């Protein structure tokens, strides 16, 4: 807004004149850095405060939000781990998410491949059905889904969660991989066919390896989405020994409200976030790449 | 559903055969390939996704209570009940407030931050992004990977009237009136406070999305604009925004669908619907109607209303985008 000043001069001729970078630029850069710093602080301070609080006793938490803990010990973490059963929930989450990813990636890549490379009458209908699945709220399906799983004997079981997770991740998977398979050169598949490779071999030995970057992108996005899934487990899984992490945390939080072990609550939050943080630090570049790819298709 | 699954597969082999190798016989390889590759995913999808959606529409016309086998067809009486249900109508209003406010705020904020990152650099020489900006991106993107329920729990503690971080900061800054202000417990602030948390969780995500979009714009366009004497603000409104229009539309729809859900956040921060139901959303009403009250027919009707609002919203976004010139090519 104030920054238009310098650039209004016809500076087109000074394309290489970095040395003449005017006051306006500095103002802009400072404004930009300030705004971005403020937002970063808004993001990071709540998290640091949570970590700090996780070391405090409940009395310390109530006395002041800023006070440092007298003793830096891990008692809260021990309590959270043992009383909240986070270890078990964690394991369940891993089983469910891994299982669902295997199912949805397998089925999704197969379906997307056929839809993208062998158009037939009716393939558009399937494609639009997938699009509808992306737009309709899961809430509409949740009641019939409950009774479907009950009839199949899968209600309150991990396989039941795996199948529903996979099914609701399928439309996005197909959608994304569809455009990916479509973009792969068809000459290679034809060459494979001439060399005598059947459709099965062409897919598994030629096309799938070529689609690896696309598969990685979908895998990452699906992982984040499914790991955070909340509605499906709380509606379809009421057996506490099968709780996944998100629902276990919700239960623990609502209980902590009564027993007032806030220290353990903060510790439980940190325990759940730290593994995510580590994975994020390692993969953040790929993840950000995936997001921009996954949503621009 | 099996009928549809198998009905589709044989049809699929024909064009493929003619397209790829005319006259070649249907081999076992081909038939099994299409049966498995198309049949299995489609049947799976129909069973777990499409059929529940369709069933829900049917159940919404019945008085089904779920556990009894009896089910009477009651026509649209469930929908009439909903119209007369003040609590439900309130939740509809709240959901609509969310879908109006959240996408706009989130997208404007993330667009501003994204443009700071990408064009905040020097206005001379090559078009440059801001220095050290990846640091900001890494930090602000992080909430996206934290489970929403955790975000909700965290912020519930931050908003805590006496021991929370927010009131702690405000009192330190001298605003004594906030020393025990219940952000989530006061009807005037509960909704705004909740909306802030959702925005907080998603701004970084959309910022990354927009940064990628802006970086995909050819640099010549910016250089041409600069030579023509366009300032930063004009460049933003005349080049950047039109060029990443599709990204913005996608973001708008994603964020809208998410706002109409908002279930997790509400459950974490205000499980009871907030003071005077000021943060009650449709999804919560649906969930408790179904799984605590056992009124499954009525709950399905709520689901249909929610779906109708979602589709209307998505349709509106498309129409508005088209009417405001989304169909024109700006490079003309």
Describe this structure in words.
- The complex is a heterodimer of chains A (297) and B (332).
- The longest helix of chain A has 35 residues.
- With 297 residues, chain A is an all-alpha fold.
- Chain A has two domains: 50 residues; 219 residues, MetI-like fold, CATH 1.10.3720.10.
- Chain A is 78% helix and 0% strand.
- The N terminus of chain A is likely disordered.
- Chain B has 14 helices and no strands.
- In chain B, helix 4 runs parallel beside helix 8 and helix 11 packs antiparallel against helix 14.
- By secondary structure, chain B is mainly alpha-helical.
- Chain B folds into two domains: 52 residues; 208 residues, MetI-like fold (Orthogonal Bundle), CATH 1.10.3720.10.
- The N terminus of chain B is likely disordered.
- Chain B is globular, with a radius of gyration of 26 Å.
- Chains A and B meet through helix 1, helix 2, helix 3, helix 5 and helix 6 of A and helix 1, helix 2, helix 4, helix 5 and helix 6 of B.
């Amino acid at each position: 807004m104030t920054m238009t000043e310098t650039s209004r001069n016809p500076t087109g001729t000074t394309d290489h004149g970095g040395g003449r970078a005017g006051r306006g630029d500095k103002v802009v850069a400072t404004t930009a850095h300030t705004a971005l710093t403020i937002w970063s602080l808004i993001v990071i301070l709540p998290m640091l405060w949570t970590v700090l609080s996780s070391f405090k006793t409940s009395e310390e938490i109530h006395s002041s939000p800023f006070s440092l803990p007298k003793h830096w010990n891990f008692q809260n973490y021990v309590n959270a781990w043992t009383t909240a059963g986070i270890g078990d929930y964690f394991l369940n989450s891993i089983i469910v998410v891994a299982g669902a990813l295997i199912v949805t990636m397998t089925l999704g890549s197969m379906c997307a491949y056929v839809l993208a490379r062998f158009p037939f009458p009716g393939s558009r209908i399937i494609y639009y059905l997938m699009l509808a699945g992306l737009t309709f709220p899961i809430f509409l399906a949740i009641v019939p889904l409950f009774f479907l799983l009950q009839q199949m004997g899968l209600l309150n079981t991990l396989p039941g969660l795996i199948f529903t997770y996979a099914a609701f991740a399928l439309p996005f998977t197909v959608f994304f991989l569809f455009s990916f398979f479509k973009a792969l050169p068809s000459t290679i598949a034809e060459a494979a066919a001439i060399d005598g490779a059947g459709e099965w071999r062409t897919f598994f030995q030629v096309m799938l390896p070529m689609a690896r970057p696309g598969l990685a992108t979908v895998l990452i996005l699906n992982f984040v989405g499914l790991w955070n899934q909340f509605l499906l487990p709380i509606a379809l899984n009421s057996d506490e020994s099968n709780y996944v992490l998100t629902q276990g945390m919700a239960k623990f939080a609502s209980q902590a409200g009564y027993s007032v072990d806030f220290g353990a609550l903060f510790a439980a939050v940190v325990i759940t976030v730290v593994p995510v943080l580590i994975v994020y630090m390692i993969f953040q570049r790929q993840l950000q790449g995936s997001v921009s790819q996954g949503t621009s298709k | 559903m099996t009928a549809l699954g198998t009905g589709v597969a044989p049809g699929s082999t024909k064009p493929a055969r003619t397209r790829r190798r005319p006259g070649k016989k249907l081999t076992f390889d081909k038939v099994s390939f299409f049966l498995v590759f198309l049949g299995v995913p489609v049947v799976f999808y129909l069973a777990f996704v499409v059929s529940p959606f369709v069933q829900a529409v049917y159940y919404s016309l019945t008085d089904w209570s779920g556990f009894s086998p009896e089910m009477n067809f009651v026509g649209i009486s469930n929908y009439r009940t909903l119209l007369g249900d003040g609590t439900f109508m309130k939740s509809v209003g709240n959901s609509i407030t969310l879908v109006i406010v959240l996408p706009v705020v989130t997208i404007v904020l993330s667009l501003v931050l994204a443009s700071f990152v990408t064009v905040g650099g020097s206005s001379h020489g090559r078009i440059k992004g801001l220095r050290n900006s990846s640091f900001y991106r890494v930090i602000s993107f992080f909430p996206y990977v934290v489970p929403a329920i955790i975000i909700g729990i965290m912020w519930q503690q931050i908003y805590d009237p006496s021991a929370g971080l927010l009131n702690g900061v405000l009192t330190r800054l001298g605003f004594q009136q906030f020393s025990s202000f219940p952000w989530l417990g006061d009807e005037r602030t509960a909704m705004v406070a909740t909306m802030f948390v959702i925005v907080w969780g998603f701004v970084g995500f959309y910022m990354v999305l927009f940064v990628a979009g802006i970086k995909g714009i050819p640099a010549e366009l910016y250089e041409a604009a600069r030579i023509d004497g366009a300032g930063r603000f004009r460049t933003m409104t005349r080049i950047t925004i039109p060029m990443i229009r599709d990204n913005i539309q996608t973001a708008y729809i994603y964020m809208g669908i998410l706002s109409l859900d908002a279930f997790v956040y509400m459950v974490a921060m205000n499980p009871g619907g907030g003071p005077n139901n000021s943060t009650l959303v449709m999804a919560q009403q649906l969930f408790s109607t179904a799984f605590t009250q056992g009124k499954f027919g009525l709950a399905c009707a709520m689901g249909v209303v929610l779906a109708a609002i979602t589709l209307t919203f998505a349709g509106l976004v498309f129409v508005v985008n088209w009417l405001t010139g989304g169909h024109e090519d700006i490079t003309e």
